[in-house]
Amino acid sequence: MRHLKKTIALITAFAIIIVVVIITFQCINKRSDVKRIELKQVRNELKEYQFSSHENLIFDCKIQNANIGSVYKYKLHDHSSDTAGDIEKQNAYNLWQVLLNNKTIQPEYSQDSSNCWFVRAEKPYSYGAYYCGGSFGASLWTWKYDENTDINETTVYKSFRGCDDFNGQQYRVGGEDYKLTDAVKFCEEFIEKNLKQYFNKDEELKLINVYVIENKIFDKYTYVFRYSHLIDGVAVDDCDSMDLENEYTRGSYLQIVLAGKNKIYSIENPCYQSSFDDKEQIDELVPLSEAEKILSNQLASQKRYTVTECELKYVCRTTAKVEERYYEPMWCFTLEQYPGQSLSFKRNLTAYVNAITGKVFLYDMSLGQLSEL
Fold first, then answer.
1. For residue 98, what are the β-bridge partners?
2. C-alpha separations of 100 from 135, 139, 325 in Å
């Protein structure tokens, strides 16, 4: 009897192992069967693209980048151990001076870290900073304010997508009525004249978001413009909330804040890549039609999401501890837009479908939380 029980137990254990192997094999096959087509076919599909109907997905947007060029998987260059030199120092000064426009003021120079030069002045408070790798920032503070007023206490009064029509939109900025179309034109001219030299040669910038924020420091409203970096027609993802203990997405963008008519309060260009260590050309991608199906199948069927933005982007999914980071092409679906708070104007729930592997994950910027589906 004892031998019979032992035999049954062994047979049961063996059967369980076989089932696990079969399920694993099926999962591997399912993942390898993800539909991929040639890049030319992907481009053709995007022409006059119409989203499909799904029980849990509603599309309130149009595809943004139908003119996709070559697509790559990029290996990012790590500049953390680089030492900033004369070029970074001069760039920091130039960024500070283009906002201040007063060469009689003598700034203070410092290296906040070995790979960054800072240029500062106290009256008026202003700074320029330039990092190895091309990240930079600058700000000019010339507004009177109460010491008890916190610049972080901002409210997003209204937001627009870069593809929206701004005609007729006008708000009081710095005490003056300022047409949004005029502000957009000013920023475009400023970028072309003063910032273009800091970006990669063949790179383009695309306006993706406009925020009208309310803060009493700036006499009613402030305009915030966010631009994405386009590499051969494909935008770099701008989701930039970081959880240094867990996985996060490393977003990059150009952001300009206007706190007066044709007056810049700050410029920010974080996590920029002026060079890559390597790139692998991708000839086949998961098409958007397939990415739709994959996402719909992975999301909960009982909940309905409204997609307000959909685009192929380069996404860097990483952690603070890894030594190698990559940009991979992914279909990005904005599922939720949370109210902006503090200086975090953009707080989205985004679904990513890897256009190479078909894998899906969600990134919630309000929580800084990345979850695999």
1. none
2. 20, 9, 36
Q: Which residues contact 165 (CB under 8 A, 6 or more apart)?
A: none
Task: Report the largest interatomic distance among the alpha carbons of the chain, rounded to a whole angstrom.
Answer: 99
Q: Are 114 and 84 in contact (CB under 8 A)?
A: yes
Which amino acid does the sequence have at 66?
Answer: A
Distance CA 351, CA 311 (A): 11
- What token pair was written down for 334? 């904005």
Instruction: Delimit the domains of the chain by residue range.
Output: 1-33, 36-76+277-372, 86-275
Residue 269's DSSP bridge partners are 136
176: tokens are 């003056």
Q: What long-range pairs does 49-56 form, CB within 8 A, spacing at least 24?
A: 49/288, 51/292, 51/307, 51/310, 52/289, 52/292, 52/293, 54/292, 54/296, 55/296, 55/301, 55/304, 56/296, 56/299, 56/300, 56/301, 56/302, 56/303, 56/304, 56/305
pLDDT of residue 57: 96
Rounded Cα distance between 328 and 286, Å, is: 12
Q: Is the dihedral of CA 84, 87, 91, 93 positive or negative?
A: positive
Contacts of 144 (CB under 8 A, 6+ apart): none
Question: What sign has the CA pseudo-torsion 185, 191, 192, 193?
Answer: positive
CB-neighbour burial class of residue 261 (10 A; exposed 0-12, middle 13-18, buried 19+):
middle
To the question of domain 36-76+277-372 being in CATH 1.10.10, the answer is no
DSSP 124-176: TEEEEEEETTS-EEEEEE-----TT--TT--EEEEEEETTS--TT-EEEETTE
Residue 164 in tokens: 């929206």
Distance separating alpha carbons of residues 70 and 315, to the nearest angstrom: 16
Q: Distance (Å, rounded) from C-alpha 197 to C-alpha 98?
A: 13
Point out the residues of the chain with pLDDT beneath 70.
1-32, 143-153, 241-244, 340-344
Question: How far is Cα of residue 125 from the mean position of the Cα atoms in its chain?
Answer: 29
Amino acid found at 156: V
**What predicted TM-score, i.e. pTM, was given to this entire model?**
0.86
What b/e readout covers 129-166, taking b as 16+ CB neighbours within 10 angstroms? bbbbbbbbbbbbbeeeeeeeeebeebebeebbebeeeb
